[in-house]
Amino acid sequence: MANFNIQKGKIYIQYRLLDKRKSLKTNLEATEENLLKAEALKKKIEEKVEIKIGDMKYRNILSSFENTKDITVEKAVEIYKFKLALTSKGYQTRFDISMNNFYKIVPRNMKASKVTYEHSLRFVKLLTDQNLSNASVRSYFDHVKVLFLFLVKNKHLNSSPLSADVLPRKTKKAIIVFDNNMLSEILLAAQKSDLMFFNILSLLLLTGLRPIDLLRLKTGDINFADRRIHIRISKTNKEIYIPLSQTLYAFIIKNMNYVIEQDQEQLVFPGYSVARLGCRFRRLKKRLGIKEKYAFNLKTFRRNFATHYAKSLNIQDVAYLLGHDEVETTKSFYANTIVDNVRNKMDKFDENQDIVKY
Fold first, then answer.
1. Cα–Cα distances in Å, from 267 out to 31, 40, 159, 185, 270?
2. How many CB atoms lie within 10 A of CB 43?
């Protein structure tokens, strides 16, 4: 744990890293207000130290099993979980569910090198027999597949026995978005309930960000001078800049001008987690009588954002805004726009045609 030390009226943060004593000069005067700023810096240092220690442990464990061909599946999971600790809790939970299912096919003490293509077939059959959706089957399969690719990368295996050709085809579903009336009701109800809740939902709509990436946003990430926002994408560990559009800029200035005065390390939405946000949104839907449990969720704001800009931007621009590496991932958001455009062309053509007499 880090602690404060006052020297000559200045705040220092002292901590230990790998048995070495470190001291950081903050250049902050020792005032009550600056102690709050220093507290934010202290937490950031503690997080970095924790990650560094975890990374060292992970590397030590990897080196102790380097080139080991006799590793068991259970031991492989134990090693992999040190890397998995850097991902979201939700991802870790899904991995655990996937492995619990996989252990019904492959014993924990089986050598990873003994897992075969046949085991992957039986694993997929086990999942499909549970009446899971194709998307869930693919998701659970991919979690286990990534584990074996990890073993290949670290030379515990020559190749992975899990192949995607055993999976059911992806189901292409129509993109579901909020209609204007529903969206207005949701935002109005959120505004009456809690202004921060309203601001979060509005920014999900105006940025197209995933909830976890929005809630990780810090005041210093918003650059008003250059009109852009620095985004860290948790899903791909990629960093991008998205434009601070005129609409988004005006909304922040009108409804969130407090961020201008805040310390740059301060979270824009402190106290909120994805779980808490999701819970509040589900309660709001229930209050408004929105009964479609799975059709409308926090991701729908991202779909509304993409569908809106698909009407005026090219697919590469929309892919960039969504943080997609491949435009194929973005194409589905153009479905509604194509339908609208084709209908408008048909209507215009039919104006001068007598197809049906009314």
1. 22, 10, 43, 28, 5
2. 12
Q: Which amino acid is at 105?
A: I
Q: Where in the chain is the domain with CATH 1.10.150?
A: 73-166
Biggest distance spanned by C-alpha atoms of the chain: 91
Residues 68-97 pLDDT 10s:
567 899 999 988 888 787 677 778 899 999
Closest residue by Cα to residue 298 from 216, 168, 211, 179: 211
Task: Give the pLDDT confidence of 120-170 residue by residue, as tens digits.
Answer: 999 999 999 998 888 888 889 999 999 999 999 888 888 898 887 777 766
Q: How far apart are CA 39 and CA 215, in angstroms?
A: 20
Element (H, E) at 29: strand 20-29
Spelled out in words, what is the top-level CATH class assigned to the domain 73-166?
Answer: mainly alpha
Q: Residue 242 is encoded by which pair of tokens?
A: 């998205």
Q: Where in the chain do CATH 1.10.443.10 domains reside?
A: 180-298
Q: Comparing C-alpha atoms, which of 287, 282, 278 is closest to residue 200?
A: 278
Domain 180-298 homologous superfamily, CATH: Intergrase catalytic core (1.10.443.10)
Which residues have a Cβ under 8 Å from the Cβ of 27 and sit 6 or more positions away? 10
- Cβ atoms 199, 268 nearer than 8 A: no
pTM for the structure as a whole: 0.60
User: How many CB atoms neighbour CB 343 within 10 A?
Assistant: 10
d(CA 298, CA 281): 8
CA–chain centroid gap for 147, Å, is 20
The token pair that represents 248 in the structure block: 């988004």
Contact present, 265 and 44 (Cβ < 8 Å): yes
Q: Are 210 and 204 in contact (CB under 8 A)?
A: no
pLDDT higher at 342 or 55:
342
